[in-house]
Amino acid sequence: MWLAVVIICVALVAIIYKYVSGSGPNPFDIDTREPLKPLVFDRKEKNKVLKQGFLANRVPQDLDAVVVGSGIGGLAIAVLLAKVGKRVLVLEQHDRAGGCCHTFTEQGFEFDVGIHYIGELQDHKPMRCMIDQLTNGQLQWAPLDNPYDQVVLGPPENRRIYPIYSGRNRFPDELKKCFPGEEKAIDEYLRLTKKVGDGVWFMVLLKLLPAPLANFLVHTGLANRLSSFFRYASRSLTEVVNELTQNKDLRAVLCYIFGTYGKIPKDASFSMHCLLVRHYLSGAWYPKGGASEIAYHMIPIIEKAGGAVLVRAPVNRILLNEAKEAIGVSVMKGQEEVHIHAPMVISDAGIFNTYQTLLPKDVQTMPAIQKQLSMVQHGEGGISIFIGLDGTKEELGLKAENYWIYSENNLDDLVEGYMKGNREESVKKIPLIFVASPSAKDPTWQERKPGKSTLTVVSFANYAWFEEWKDEKVKNRSVDYKELKQTFINSVLEVLTEIYPKIKDRIEFVDAGTPISNQHYIGAPKGEIYGADHGISRFSVELNATIRPQTPIKNLFLTGQDVMLCGFAGALGGALTCGSVLLNRNLHMDAFALAKKVNHGNNKKMQ
Fold it and tell me: Where are the strands (E) in 398-451, listed by range?
């Protein structure tokens, strides 16, 4: 029996190696980093890159691919293809490129909308190497302070603040200082996060293997046996953490970062949580010059290969031939359709928009498409509040760190009650608030905006609370909508002025973006900020073997966070997985190989 198992495993390894190594062109073949160029602060100059409006005569000829959406998943796949000589057109419905990586300016204040902090950006890490290659080494990063997160539990009269430090040793050591007697629980938590997080490679594997082989691994149970990630994927964060400790504050602290994927601990997969803990274990970073620097340094690479990134280009449908194969897209220009043809269409618009909006009704009913849609749900709606302040970070007591503020330590009950509660009551007391100062994180800020500062707040809100106003004109919605937004703002400011007392009389601008704002600006169907729901079912082996870059429509592919995971790193992973399929090679392994090569070269220079 054991001999048969060994033979099967050896055969599987041989087959897997054949399919995941590949022989196509490698965009990570050489190190393309260039000497750093001066940062560009002039907004008009940056807009020449980020705000190139759609015109039919700006569409390049002889396209190799068209990408729907300019979020990091769309831009990254376009750059990967451009680096192997492909001519790619990226189309964005908003008036600027970048998706959740874009910034906007109001009354002289610049705000980011989705980039708050990124992990794993040490020089030798594959993540840093990959981003360097996608921007030719022009994107610079500033580390956050240490501690980089502050977890706040309880009301003002009984407030406990727990600092979260980066560092594989310092993270547990500082937690143990806060929770004496809980050393065993903290050590076991870290052991599990490493063990489970290390198994995520199998998720990539399921998406790269031929579907019959992936399904064989799923239905035989081998996928669960071979991957610690999938073994723990069906267990909730609450379940695992509650087994480790009875201390309610420690439980909350070990779960606090669930807001970065949008599921309360009892509905969150422990495996997903492990990835986030590992992601920030060695530190957190913010892009110098603001989040718009990301798209600003990617677009020229696409253009150099003959492609383009055009905005104000709402794609209203994917063009299909008689054989139901994708042959291009249709863009609405005023009241007219402009047809753009390409042998390959790649969607960064998310699985719901792609299947339910961009495809004809008769195609949407295909069993294979309906199966995929039945496996996913919409994520939670997001709300953001943007605050402009008069004063420097020193004057206002702002630091390069984040606060996670919870009204108590019973996180599941708090957030679930809020999301399911009556709208008028829930908005008066928001139990979860993430707040950060982008201006304090960016070392170029004072040069760009002297004497000013900003705060950005993120939380969750039920899409249904705002749905009645979704068809009204943006920035000119009814009084009831504006009053509801103001109630949110007032609730948040009451908490913030306790955390940051020096800002109380220094607020010059404040506004909120609701789930229907997300629907308008980033095309989120239900106002979600993390795409398809990241609950426990999202991490089943069957779903991950089924939802992959290839779609049931020939020549139509998916990229971005709905392919892999949410957030900046997750969307990049989706782009790498999509690129692996399109270029017939494992780009994840190629990025690791180049990182190793670059790190080896750096070490030789230092000797």
Answer: 402-406, 432-436
40 burial type by CB count under 10 A (0-12 exposed, 13-18 middle, 19+ buried) = middle
Looking at CATH, the fold of the domain delimited by 2-139+289-375+547-606 is given as FAD/NAD(P)-binding domain (3.50.50)
**Two tokens at 227?**
């991957």
Three-point CA angle 20, 21, 24, nearest 5°? 110
- Decide: 442 and 286 in contact? Cβ < 8 Å: yes
Reduced to 3 states, what is the DSSP secondary structure of residue 109?
strand
CB-based burial of residue 487 (10 Å sphere; 0-12 exposed, 13-18 middle, 19+ buried)?
middle
The residue extents of the domains of the chain are 2-139+289-375+547-606, 145-282+378-521
CA distances from 540 to 76, 184, 235, 375, 469 (A): 26, 30, 11, 10, 36
* pTM (two decimals): 0.95
Residue 21: pLDDT band with limits 50, 70, 90: low
pLDDT of residue 20: 52
* Phi, psi dihedral angles at 336 (to 5 degrees): -110, 150
pLDDT at 512: 95
Beta-sheet pairing, 402-406 with 149-153: parallel
CATH classification number, 145-282+378-521, choose in 3.40.50.1860, 3.90.660.50, 3.40.640.10, 3.40.50.720? 3.90.660.50
Average pLDDT, the chain: 93
